[in-house]
């Protein structure tokens, strides 16, 4: 099809859209009796992994599951307020690490987790970033309708940590779980403070080449969500 034919077709489509009347009412958005179960079902539908961390023991088991699946011995954490927000006991050896934009990790050489977590810091450079296996961040909210989490960034390490590691864990509080996208857009104020907001629904995927589904092309290959109180 020639360029002029494509432009003519687009023009006609645009004119048809302008002539079409807008609906007087919006369709009803879905509502669910059990938000947690619906979120879990939808997350797993898009190849994500749901883990319940709503007690210290469940939280320990969830982190050990991630370590075992990834065959890794360390976890990198995005921000200091994550620990207080989700009730994760920790000891930070360098109290200024997050403020100075350093990478902070907990070591688990035998893939076991003990609380409080002992946190160590490293320079924020390409060599350290290239070695990341597991990164952890805190989701601003979740949407049960699609198993989606809202990722944001503030000061410190920025947006690389949630997307660079092959395995990413998003911590989500039960109170931050929303029913559907209508609730999301009516309750969440976008762009007030953060420089970056993204809705994440499972690991990134593409089937552009020979219709073969590949996970992790534009981000982590494994996407976990740990639910906390």
Q: What's the overall geometry?
A: globular
State the helicity in percent bands: 25-40%
- Secondary-structure element pattern, one letter each: HHEHEHEEEHEEEHEEHEEEE
How many individual β-strands? 14
> What would CATH call the class?
Alpha Beta
What do the pLDDT scores average to? 87
Distance between the termini: 56 Å
How many distinct helices?
Answer: 7
Total tally of structural domains: 1
What is the topology?
Layout: H1 3-19, H2 35-45, E1 49-52, H3 56-70, E2 74-77, H4 81-85, E3 90-92, E4 103-107, E5 117-122, H5 126-130, E6 134-138, E7 141-143, E8 148-153, H6 160-164, E9 167-173, E10 177-178, H7 181-187, E11 196-200, E12 205-206, E13 214-215, E14 222-228
Parallel strand pairs: 1-14, 2-6, 3-5, 6-9, 7-10, 9-14
Antiparallel strand pairs: 2-4, 4-5, 7-8, 8-11, 12-13
Explained architecture:
The chain has a single domain (29-228), classed as Rossmann fold (3-Layer(aba) Sandwich), CATH 3.40.50.10420. The chain has 7 helices and 14 strands. The radius of gyration is 21 Å and the shape is globular. Strand 7 and strand 8 (148-153) form a beta hairpin. The chain has 229 residues and is α/β, with parallel strands linked by helices. The protein has an 8-stranded mixed sheet. 30% of the residues are buried.
């Amino acid at each position: 099809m020639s360029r002029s034919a494509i432009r003519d077709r687009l023009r006609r489509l645009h004119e048809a859209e302008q002539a079409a009347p807008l609906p007087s009412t919006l369709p009803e958005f879905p509502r669910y009796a059990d938000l947690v179960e619906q979120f879990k079902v939808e997350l797993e539908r898009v190849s994500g992994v749901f883990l319940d961390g709503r007690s210290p023991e469940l939280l320990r088991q969830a982190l050990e599951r991630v370590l075992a699946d990834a065959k890794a011995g360390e976890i990198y954490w995005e921000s200091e307020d994550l620990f207080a927000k989700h009730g994760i006991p920790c000891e930070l050896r360098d109290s200024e690490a997050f403020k100075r934009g350093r990478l902070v990790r907990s070591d688990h050489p035998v893939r076991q987790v003990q609380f409080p977590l002992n946190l160590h810091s490293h320079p924020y450079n390409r060599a350290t970033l290239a070695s990341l296996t597991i990164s952890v961040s805190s989701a601003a909210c979740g949407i049960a309708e699609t198993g989606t989490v809202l990722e944001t960034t503030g000061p410190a390490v920025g947006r690389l940590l949630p997307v660079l590691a092959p395995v990413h864990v998003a911590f989500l509080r039960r109170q931050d779980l929303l029913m559907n996208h209508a609730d999301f857009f009516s309750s969440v104020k976008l762009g007030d403070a953060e420089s970056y907001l993204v809705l994440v629904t499972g690991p990134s995927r593409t089937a552009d080449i020979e219709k073969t589904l590949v996970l992790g092309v534009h981000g982590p290959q494994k996407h976990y969500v740990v639910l906390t109180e």
